[in-house]
Amino acid sequence: MLRLVIRKHSDQKCDCEGLNSMTCRLKILRLQGCGLTAETCQYLSQYFFLIHLLSMNIWPNTLFMFVVFLLSVSRCGITGAGCRYLAKVLCSISQLTDGWMGVGEWQAVELIDLDLSMNHIGDKGVKEISPGLMNPLSHLKTLNLTYCSLTDSCCAELASGLMSKENILSELDLSHNNLQDKGVKKLYIGLQSPCSVFLFLFRLRTCGLTSRSVQFLTSALKLNPFYLTELHLVGNRLENSEIRALAELTKNHKYALRTIE
């Protein structure tokens, strides 16, 4: 099994039974809008604990490759308090046992794609998970935070994550949040940093932005021209002249920017 999708009206216990197979190699876990119950979460936690025991005890001389690359928990009723537990995962580094790999060698959680869209996590939730971007062994490349009830108050923490030399995030979606120009001004600090070289796609659709935000974004692109290839700004109150100025950058080979929406 490479992919597990748990649906709202399915037999969730039955859905989870395939995880007990010794041949299971789960890579993608989708839980969005599924009406997940505490009982189902118990089944999932038992599976993850089983894998932990197997990797440590049954195959002590073999690197047991259990990783979930994509975790989608869209529309799951997660709040800022729930993000505290996700933060522990994103910030965790688990030490490997003696005889398996050398003492002092470490293995990080290998989550690549995290979808938290349409959860009321608020600024508190983002402040909880942002330190995960600074994990020196982080694999996280895609972060979806659309419709998460965010404001400019969380943008400083996100900017700090983008500025970290450990950050490898390549796609960030903050669409449909009330960030406004104040939020983009704070994000600008991270966007203009040379450490943001991995960020290729940035979505800010319907975020209450004005032409002032375009000025910050244009300035960031000019200071750090080699990374961002796609910028999505649809649904904001922007002047055509400002959009044209950004569009001109797509014609200049000095800049990586190729798509403006």
UniProtKB/TrEMBL annotation:
Listed name of the protein: Uncharacterized protein
Organism: Pundamilia nyererei
InterPro entries in alphabetical order: Leu-rich_rpt, LRR_dom_sf, NLR
Transmembrane residue ranges: 47-71
Pfam families: LRR_6
Superkingdom classification of source: Eukaryota
Keywords (A to Z) from UniProt: Leucine-rich repeat, Membrane, Repeat, Transmembrane, Transmembrane helix
